[in-house]
Every structure is written in C-alpha cells, then in structure tokens.
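Data card: per-record layout.
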Amino acid sequence: MKKLQLISILVALALAVPSQAADKPKTLKDRIKSVSNRMFTKSGRMELTVYPLTSISLNDAFYQKLGGGVGFAYHFSDMFSLQALVTYSLNLDAGHATSYTISTETETKVPYAGKRKLLAGVDFCWSPIYGKISLASEWIMHFDTYIMAGLGGIQGEQVSGSSFGFAGAVGLGARFFFNDTFALKFEIKDYMVFTDKVSFGEGESIIEKSDVQHQLLFNFGLSIFFLDGSQED
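The structure for this 233-residue chain is written out next.
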C-alpha cells in the first residue's frame, strides 16, 4: 500500500508540472506568432473590386468629385497583373472656382475646369512588396503594395458641351487581406489628360485653351478574389 501511495504522489507531481507551465503568462515573444508562408495567392486568379462612392478627387479647386464604380483584374502571377476600372462621379461645387464670361448677353459664368463624370482606364500593375504587420500583438494582417501605369479616358461637360479626353495614368496601391478571398484595396491615381480643350468667347474673339490637366483620385474599395489560381514556389 505504501508503494502504491508513493507512485500515486509521483504521478500527481508529474502532471502538475506541465499544468503550472501552461498557466505561466506568455511573453511578448510567445504572443507574436511566427508566420513564414503567404496567407493568400493571386497567381491565376480574377479580382473584382467594388467602389461604393469611394472614388474621391484630391486636387479639385472647381468641382469635388465623389464617384462609385467597379474594377476587374487578372493576376498573371503574384507580382504582375492587368486591371480595368470604370467609375462615374458626382460633381460637387467647391465654391471657389475661377469663372469667366462665355456670353456677353446672358453673362453666364462657367468654371474653366468643367465637370468630369465618367473615368475609365486599363493599367499594368507590378507588386514588388509583400509583408505582414502585427496588430496589438494578437492579429497578423497580410498586405501587398503595387505600382501601376496605363491609359484611360475622362468624359464630362465643358463649356462647349460634352467632351472626352484621353489620358495616361500612373499610381500606387495597396491591399490588406482579411483572408484568401477578401481584401481592402487602396489606390492613389493620377490621370494626365492630354486632349483637354475648352473654347470660350464669340466670333473672332474665341480663345481655346489646351494643356495637360491632372485629375488626382483616391480609390478605396472591397476586393473579392475568384478562381483557385496556381500555387507559386
């Protein structure tokens, strides 16, 4: 009986040691998880991005633009992709636009900038940076950043009526991934409109202004990834 009691005591002590170690508070090093693999893959996948009135102009002295639209992208690999974007913007009067008279009879004053409504573009994207950040030492968020360049167009209203301008576009973007399917997407994009012309005046006094106009936009949307894609080494 004494031997049996001794064995029981030794077994209880052996079980108590791991239990006490498990109850020991975790250090900051223990709490931050080490993650070595990607949480997501983009190669061979389609990306749909929805912009619910989250396309906002940043450099407007005339009309502040608030737009919504959709974007599509195909990822050839985790680094390279091709995307298309279409947005339609509401034009809110900024209240401090420089005006000029286009009719001496009616004294109509119209801001030179006009109203830009439909914006579209196709961009080639390169994603050179992928990383992870720790939030409050508890949650790890995965992200990537990309550089884009492409061509596009802007349709809107000018003094002489409806107009359309061709544009080059450059920008920077980033995605923050919730999981392998959903991500938040941020972009700053500069449309450089090369064929933007405005005519004003009458008869022989008509003056036409033509130069490169910049339309700087901040886009914020929700991306949804489709297809299984292909795993890369």
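Known properties of this structure: The chain is about 10% helix and 60% strand. The beta strands are 46-57, 63-75, 80-93, 99-103, 108-111, 115-135, 139-158, 161-177, 182-200, 207-226.

See the next section for split statistics.
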